[in-house]
Amino acid sequence: MELKYWEDFQIGETFRFGEKLVSREEMLDYARRFDPHPLHLDRDAAIAAGLRDIRASTFQVCCFCMRMMVDDRLKGSTSQGSPGVQELRWLLPVYPGDRLEVRQEVLSKRRHPRRPEVGFCNSGFELRNQDDEVVMRMFSAGIFKLRDPGAPMEEQA
What we know:
The chain has a domain at about 5-20 and about 60-145: Thiol Ester Dehydrase, Chain A, CATH 3.10.129.10. The chain is about 25% helix and about 30% strand. The protein has helices spanning about 25-35, 40, 45-50, 60-75; strands at about 15-20, 85-90, 100-110, 120-130, 135-145. The two termini are about 30 Å apart. The model has no long low-confidence stretch (mean pLDDT about 95).
């Protein structure tokens, strides 16, 4: 498998990847260990709050997305991590039995101003459920190695 470098990302390019079936057991385990809010642990409390069942912790939803990103996109790349997330929104609850996938769009890219061997690739991500509803939206930058650090600097939108 050929590694994906910064030059290989094209602005406007979109990807669909991953598939995650969310289980009640993993939701409960995560909630017990990291986020024991009643809406994540107690079906009656969730229903009383207007939900149809327990819901996944929002940060567990981020973990689902990250796992799919690593498995399907980052393992085959020259990823050097990320400087951070510009925006993160949870739009709908994730319930047991939901099937999730990720959609990514490359929005912009630029060379690092002080490190000629790497560049930034800014992307928008949507985590969608089986009904094609967006449950989470995120905008973040990734840092990737350049195939040819000596190439002239070229501005990207």
